Amino acid sequence: MKSLLKNAREQKGLKTRELAQLAGIDQALISKFESGTRKPTKDQVTKLSQLLEIDYETLMVGWLKEKILYEIGDDEFALKALKVAEDEIKYNKTVSNLKLSTSLEKILKEIDSLKEKLDSHRQFDSFKIKQALELEYTFESNRIEGNTLTLRETDMVINEGLTISGKSMREHLEAINHQEAIGFIKELMNKSNSLNERDVLSIHNLILRGIIPEDAGRYRKVQVMIQGSSHMPPQPLMLQQEMEEYFIWYEINKNKLHTVILAAEMHERLVTIHPFIDGNGRTSRLIMNLILMQKGYPIANIKGDYENRMQYYQSLEIAQTKKDKEDFFLFIAQREKESLERYISILTQ
Fold first, then answer.
1. Structural domains in the chain plus CATH codes
2. Is residue 116 classed exposed, middle or buried when 0-12, 13-18 and 19+ CB atoms within 10 A define those classes?
3. Distance between CA 184 and CA 199 in Å, rounded?
4. Total Cβ atoms within 10 A of residue 81
5. How far lies 128's CA from each of 115, 124, 179, 322, in Å?
6. Minimal CA–CA distance to 195: which of 254, 240, 109?
7. How far apart are CA 308 and CA 321, in angstroms?
8. Residue 313 marked ligand-binding
9. N- to C-terminal Cα distance for the chain?
10. Residues in contact with 38: Cβ distance below 8 Å, sequence separation at least 6, in sequence order
């Protein structure tokens, strides 16, 4: 930047004294700016850009570059720190640009009101209620993925240890595994509102345990296509970086967004990355509900019937291909509102 300032001043035919007078900056400081022994402030950069007719962006980039290099120098962690800083700046910008529609703001306010009402009736809560709702969640989440066990059969497999005639071993394992995964995220609830790679891989490991053991808790090593969707997940070589950015985004935004929006975002982002060969949907929904439960919200249970499943997939498709998450946010918010209303009705009947 120092040579840029000096060259621009000389091209304008100005002496350092004359530039100092025009800018209202001490002449000695102008000389130090040009020699690189002193850094101008942001306001001074703006003034010099205008007076010397230097492109503001060019000058600001040069100024920030020198400022960064001055601060971090050649520290051994400099490049890694810059990468993390780049991600934080990028994702902070994403959050600042997130504009909620009137419809979404309205339903979030309704959710906040229902959450307050639920909290005021917590003394009537019981283990039996939670157990029944968790069973329904396992049934519906598996039904979305094509599992044909009924709610009663799911109960018999999980709570009575029975084998259902005509149903595959995979369907039995999907029920048992999902219920164990719910138990695991309930353990994670007691941690601070954190989420890391180990947690996600552990959840996925439980989902696929005994079904595809070689892929349980491991990122896929092959490219995949999502049946019925035009979205193409990232190549396997990109998964580690994509997942690192996923957790960075969470750390940056976990205290900035409404819990329902944060949970929906983490669901959509994970299923869009599609890091696993199978079990992405169930894992993403469990992550979403972990975030909700950590903040005292009930499980957002997406029904597995045709109408709800199609609405769910269509809103995801729009988010993935058109980068418009409004429909998906509204869909998840509506499911959470329904869960709150039902929970309150159970506690107050």
1. 2-73 (1.10.260.40), 93-348 (1.10.3290.10)
2. exposed
3. 9
4. 13
5. 20, 11, 15, 42
6. 254
7. 20
8. yes
9. 71
10. 29, 32
In whole angstroms, what is the distance from residue 175 CA to residue 304 CA? 14
What gap in Å lies between CA 216 and CA 275, rounded to an integer?
12
Report which of 215, 140, 151 is spatially closest to residue 182, judged by C-alpha positions: 140
Residue 280 annotated in ligand binding: yes
For the chain, how many residues are written?
349
pLDDT of residue 199: 95
284 annotated as a binding-site residue: yes
103 is in an annotated binding site: no
Residue 160's pLDDT is: 96
Q: What string of H, E and C letters represents the secondary structure of the chain?
A: CHHHHHHHHHHCCCCHHHHHHHHCCCHHHHHHHHHCCCCCCHHHHHHHHHHHCCCHHHHHHHHHHHHHHHHHCCCCCHHHHHHHHHHHHHHHHHHHCCCCCHHHHHHHHHHHHHHHHHHCCHHHCCHHHHHHHHHHHHHHHHHHCCCCCCHHHHHHHHHCCCCCCCCCHHHHHHHHHHHHHHHHHHHHHCCCCCCCHHHHHHHHHHHHCCCCCCCCCCCCCCCCCCCCCCCCCCCHHHHHHHHHHHHHHHHHHCCCCCHHHHHHHHHHHHHHHCCCCCCHHHHHHHHHHHHHHHCCCCCCCCCCCHHHHHHHHHHHHHHHHHCCCHHHHHHHHHHHHHHHHHHHHHHHC
* Predicted pLDDT of residue 96: 46
- Active-site annotation holds for 121: no
User: Is 165 marked as a binding-site residue?
Assistant: no
Mean pLDDT, contiguous 10-residue spans, the chain (349 residues) = 80 88 88 85 83 80 80 75 70 58 95 96 92 97 98 97 97 98 93 84 98 97 85 92 91 91 97 96 98 96 97 95 93 98 94
